[in-house]
Amino acid sequence: MSQYSSKWLKVSEPSPHVLHIELARAPVNAFCTEFWVAYGKLFDALTEDGYDVRAAVVSSVFPKIFTAGLDLKDASAIGENGSETTLDSARASLQTRNRLLAFQKAIGAPERAPFPVIAAVHGYVIGLGVDLIGICDIRYAAANSSFAIKEVDIGLAPDIGSLAFLPKITGNHSLVRELTYTARYFSAAEAEKLGLVSKVVQGGRDEVVKEALELAKFIATKSPVAVSGSKHLITHSRDHSVAQNLEYTGAWNAAALMTNDIRDQLVATAKKEKAKFPALSVQTKLPKL
Predict the structure, then answer these.
(1) Global pTM?
(2) Contact of 19 with 11, CB cutoff 8 Å
(3) Which of these CATH numbers, 3.90.226.10, 3.30.365.10, 1.10.460.10, 2.30.30.30, describes 9-219?
(4) What is the pLDDT of residue 195?
């Protein structure tokens, strides 16, 4: 997996079709521009290359912290680069907007991936960390995790994903607003109560990563056509009405039902064996448009 690892991202394949993506920018995984660009490119490259990934886990190499969020020492990370000082307000605003949209797209890359992405968080999950995990499919937290939607404390509203995702993926708007307005820290137990995480694992980094990898390994045994299609349809359901989603699902499955995975699963079940499914896509580099 060395071809996908980079300066601050460690990528390994601990079991077939399961990737472990580790954030590794010392000392606290603060996201500078180079870091978030590389993060987005990783997921997009895996998809474009057709690498046979069926589930991925994102964690940190540092036991006491998942991420400290945005690197405030990197002025370009928050849209304050030198060229803007020569522009009028309208042009400077447009340039900043374009940068924010690029940032959102990079952190949102796991949602575009055809495979489930599981966040295994531990230690501090601050600011951008909440944006990052909110976009993942599944979120597990070690009991020692401590979260904060921290942007208000630096004078801005969260703008990379938290305010878009949290009201839709959690069940308590009152608590979402409280945590956003106050920027206070909240525990793994409160994150589970909010619905931000689906499981709290006793222990720290090693324990939560182990649980997440076991889940990923199990998901990877399922039909990639079924899992990828389910991910796509769940996301569509989040953003559309029930009627729209049912109509869309009908069109989607009209094609997906043609898969040989159904036959392979039925044959394997009859033989009391585990089905073996081919890759979702051919491993070939697509031309860039």
Answers:
(1) 0.93
(2) yes
(3) 3.90.226.10
(4) 95
